[in-house]
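User: Predict Altronate oxidoreductase's structure from this.
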Amino acid sequence: MHTPIIQFGTSRFLLAHVDLFVDEALKAGRALGGISVVQTTDNPLSRKRVTALASGSGYPVRIRGLERGERIDREQHISAVTNAYEAALDWRLIRDELFQAATVVISNTADAGFLLNEADSKKCLDDPGSIPKSFPAKMLCLLHARWKEQPDQGPSIFPCELVSRNGDKLKGILIGLAKEWGCDEAFVQYLDTRCAWANSLVDRIVSKPIEPVGAVAEPYALWAIERLPGLVLPCSHAAITETDQLEKYERLKLWVLNLGHTVLAECWLRDGAPAGETVQQAMSVATRRDVLERIWTSEVLPVFNAMGEGHEASEYVATVRDRFLNPYLEHQLADIAKNHREKKVRRLAPVVEQSRKLGLELSQPQIMATLGELQHV
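Assistant:
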């Protein structure tokens, strides 16, 4: 069965975020149709999920957490994924049929998903038996095969990787690779003008897998998508927001949620707290929570207020507070503290820089103490 949505990646995040949205929208008659999932790597855990998804019996998503202070604990059965394939085994079918029929392409291929592989070559463009190793090369070959059959009909492409302006980023990589491989200029123009590349931001903590397939997720969910002419959405859903100000949502997430995680990680490192301590446990320690609350209230929200975004920021802080206090979420600070130095620069320094640009007389002592010797980076 060919579906209008094809998804690259089997991550539990996609299962509990985009796929859940499509499932709920399908039941309300507001989705394009079902989803075909493609495993792009040889990860054995992904292979187990593909096998389970291919059975067609669906999977559970358990929603657990706090919503406006109220405990939520419910389970949903998701049946939007109707087919599942492995690129290594089903490449010809994916290339010649499934991708040709797709209106929407979704991806979430982890941190290294946009990296190229030196072993890939232009041979894969015309040889159906040559399977590229990297995700960008796979996409280029699939789009090239589609272009030859449908030169005027490109799909809407939604990368969900956690990269700023992810649609522009993936588009640039593919156009660069097409030029490097000496592709026809008409194909390069097709990539540039006939395909719709969505920049978007995803926001939901999916904390645990359910074996063999499924996930545990928090109640909060957002998929903010930059408005673009010709872009076709996979579905209509309350958690999907089309916007002309994607950067506003990026700021909120970076300066409130991500900053909050890094501040708690800094407190955890400073205090020599237990190795397995979670975000929720850290929020139960008065001294650590006090540091974070003071940063949010006195050092971050005034910057949003000065930008005319204070109301949205205050509401977002309230939702993030509920998320951090989630009694069901085992989000360990040891994981958050990885690459801690880089995260401090990326998540805290821009708040200080923006305050200075706005000419605010804001001391921001807690942020400056957290940045420490990095405050001038």
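The two ends are 53 Å apart (CA to CA).
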